[in-house]
Amino acid sequence: MGHSTTIWDQKSEFEVIKDWNNIDQVVLRSPRGASARVSLHGGQVISWRNERGEELLFTSSKAILKPPKAMRGGISIYFPQEQMWSIDNEPHPRRPTTAMENFEFRLRVSLAMDGNLTMLLICLSHVPVVSDISEVRIEGLETLDYLDNLCQRERFTEQGDAITFESEVDRVYLGSPNIVAVLDHEKKRTFVIRKEGLPDVVVWNPWERKSKTMVDFGDEEYKQTLCVDGALIERPVNLKPGEEWTAKLELSAIPSTYC
């Protein structure tokens, strides 16, 4: 622990370091300069930088950085979030033939034959950095039904061609496609979310009023962030002993000309 070593090939490295709470963090670096930082407290991704060193994930300047509370922002897994994780010394046997350019993280849930019936309600929360929330739109959720958490989870149908933001939003979009795009016009950048096994999407922005009531969130930070979560909410998965369930979420940042 605490030293650098190589994974998959001789150019892609990871390093295990201690944070200010003496919790292990895994720092991943690709040959071209991209990097990611993962806290073993909840397996939360707290940094993702592209090859130019630009931070792509939002973390609040007022985040409370002490367990059991998770850091506000990054990529969180709403399942074992308040538990400590460990590094798998025997990872998946697949070996890329080229240098590692993308980072992949896995959560494996096993239910033994003598285990109890388990119901899974899971959410993979992604909080990107955006230039200005008023310049952002989400494509791929139009015409879908959604549950509005600001209206006692009443069900509505999305009427817009794309989702834009002018006030607080807290919704669960149901039965969404496997690809959703977050377009940032000012940065000319698109976050593309590809998912499997996560049929729902949570969209959240606290806007000005709620931001001022959150102790771990800056008063003006709602302008630079947006939660878009792949989730399993409407129809939870029930696992019997010996059964398994798999989901996948892939996130990429590309020029907006893609859309």
Automatic annotation (TrEMBL):
Keywords: Isomerase
Enzyme superclass (EC): isomerase
Stated name of the protein: glucose-6-phosphate 1-epimerase
Keyword Isomerase found: yes
High-level lineage: Eukaryota, Viridiplantae, Streptophyta, Embryophyta, Tracheophyta
Protein family (similarity comment): Belongs to the glucose-6-phosphate 1-epimerase family.
Gene source species: Ananas comosus (Pineapple)
Keyword rRNA-binding: no
A GO BP annotation: carbohydrate metabolic process
Pfam families in alphabetical order: Aldose_epim
Catalytic activity, reaction form: alpha-D-glucose 6-phosphate = beta-D-glucose 6-phosphate
Listed GO MF terms: carbohydrate binding; glucose-6-phosphate 1-epimerase activity
EC number: 5.1.3.15
Gene Ontology CC: cytoplasm
